[in-house]
Design goal:
Layout: H1 6-27, H2 29-32, H3 42-56, H4 61-77, H5 79-91, H6 100-103, H7 107-122, E1 130-135, E2 141-148, E3 151-156, H8 161-172, E4 176-180, H9 186-202, E5 210-212, H10 217-224, E6 232-236, H11 239-248, E7 261-265, H12 271-283, E8 292-298, H13 305-309, E9 318-321, H14 323-329, E10 338-340, E11 354-360, H15 363-373, E12 378-382, H16 386-395, E13 400-403, E14 423-424, E15 432-433, E16 440-447
Helix pairs in contact: 1-5, 4-7, 4-9, 5-9, 7-8
């Protein structure tokens, strides 16, 4: 959310307080959305979800798609209740907090969430696909087919939309899910899970197919060590959260989320393209992991830096520039938004209207900087030199590498995957946007005719 003055903050807070009071009166929200999981023993919850996953594996594809479409409809019918719950969460967060925009739900965002669920329902099933098939010399016929993981636990922070995204993707891919949201979004998450449970029950599907854990640290610790009950954990959030999960979990983990993204403007870069790409990557939505954090500019193009950064002024982006970049921008960019970079400016995921700038002497130097400070998420080069573009694409170690396009495209829906469960920044199993196929595993089916091994 844009920075606003104290009067603006007061108006926003007064509006939200009125909004909550009105909808509490109409919907009696506090009585209608209890947290059913807080009093449950976590082991019993894990056992119930594991049992539900077994039944889900036998569910008909048409039933799954019908449930997804019905949940989308129910989410819109329950919009007042969900938005009232979300407004209560927003009351507890400062609007200047970079997480505020992620936390906020609106009627338009709910429409988008419902549309994503319908899109997932319309996608082909990722299950029972033949990934590989062959017959051995001894006559054994081998076939590798896609199957559900079983139970997927997702740990996330102030992002209530993730509750719907995880549910739809896990259901479509045949897995039950354990949702571990943060305390910042607890009211929103409980309202959302209530909608999901209501729909599952209407279709005769075990509501334990989706379980929301309490928003405390104890339940996080239990989830990380739920061997035998949970097959996979996916953390979504800050680098601190992801590091903690990776270090502590004894259940397999796929890392997602933290995005320290760079754009390198090459000696052969087009200024018009570059200015548009940089502005879109930085300002389209600053609170997401594919937002631009650092602009690398070739020293031969410093004279073009004011033009490259000019569109950022409309969004009041604060620039942290190294010495040479600072001199190029001084007098050409508003002084109140131009700062000198220090050691902490690089390798920072700002999640705000802030961006670092670093001058480099070559594409090799740009790649070396990315090696040191990148998070293996998304990186981009702006150049008309095919040789430089080819080198950058080959040398950069990241899940998504762009040429003449912004990192803001790193998104499951943009890649045609439907909704996504996260952006994997690791190299095992899945990398980049994780859609339906990326949250399945496989098994081998072997058919014989009495063969025995000598």
């Amino acid at each position: 959310m844009r920075r606003i003055d104290k009067l603006g903050n007061l108006l926003v807070m007064n509006f939200i307080e009125t909004y909550v009071k009105n909808f509490r009166r109409k919907a009696k929200f506090a009585d209608k959305v209890p947290n059913k999981t807080t009093e449950m023993n976590l082991l019993e919850t894990f056992q119930s979800v594991r049992s539900a996953s077994r039944r889900l594996a036998m569910a008909d594809e048409k039933l799954i798609n019908d449930v997804l479409r019905a949940t989308a409809d129910e989410a819109l019918r329950s919009a007042d209740t969900i938005l009232a719950a979300n407004a209560e969460d927003l009351l507890r967060m400062n609007p200047d907090n970079s997480k505020y925009d992620r936390l906020k739900l609106t009627p338009e965002r709910l429409e988008g969430i419902a549309s994503d669920m319908r899109n997932v329902a319309n996608l082909p099933s990722p299950l029972n696909l033949t990934l590989e098939e062959r017959t051995l010399p001894n006559g054994l016929h081998l076939k590798k087919v896609s199957v559900p993981f079983g139970v997927i636990g997702v740990i996330y922070e102030a992002r209530p939309n993730v509750s719907f995204d995880v549910f739809s993707l896990c259901l479509k891919s045949g897995s039950a899910c354990l949702l571990k949201g943060g305390s910042d979004a607890d009211c929103s998450n409980r309202a959302i899970v209530e909608v999901i449970h209501r729909t599952l029950e209407r279709f005769g599907v075990d509501p334990n197919t989706v379980a929301l854990l309490p928003p405390d640290r104890e339940s996080t610790a239990e989830l990380l060590h739920a061997e035998g009950y949970v097959d996979l954990i996916i953390p979504r959030g800050s680098s601190g959260l992801i590091t903690y999960v990776r270090r502590e979990a004894t259940v397999p983990v796929i890392e997602t989320g933290a995005g320290i993204c760079h754009t390198y403007f090459d000696a052969a870069g087009d200024v018009t393209k570059g200015a548009a790409i940089i502005n879109n990557a930085k300002t389209r939505r600053v609170s997401v992991c594919n937002a631009l954090d650092c602009l690398l500019v070739h020293s031969a193009r410093l004279a073009d830096l004011p033009q490259l950064c000019a569109p950022l002024q409309a969004s009041r982006v604060i620039l942290y520039a190294d010495e040479t970049a600072y001199r190029a921008l001084e007098g050409n960019y508003p002084a109140e938004w131009l700062c000198k970079a220090d050691a902490s400016s690089y390798g920072t995921e700002f999640l705000d209207y802030k961006m670092a700038i670093k001058t480099v002497g070559s594409v090799e130097e740009a790649v070396t900087h990315i090696y040191k400070y990148g998070s293996k998420h998304s990186e981009s080069i702006v150049t008309e030199d095919l040789k430089a573009a080819s080198f950058f694409q080959r040398a950069v170690d990241a899940a998504c590498v762009y040429t003449n396009a912004p990192t803001s495209f790193t998104d499951g829906a943009q890649f045609g995957l439907g909704a996504e469960i996260g952006i994997s920044t690791q190299k095992l199993h899945a990398r980049g946007p994780m859609g339906l196929r990326e949250i399945t595993t496989y098994k081998w089916l072997i058919e014989g005719n009495g063969q025995i091994r000598k």
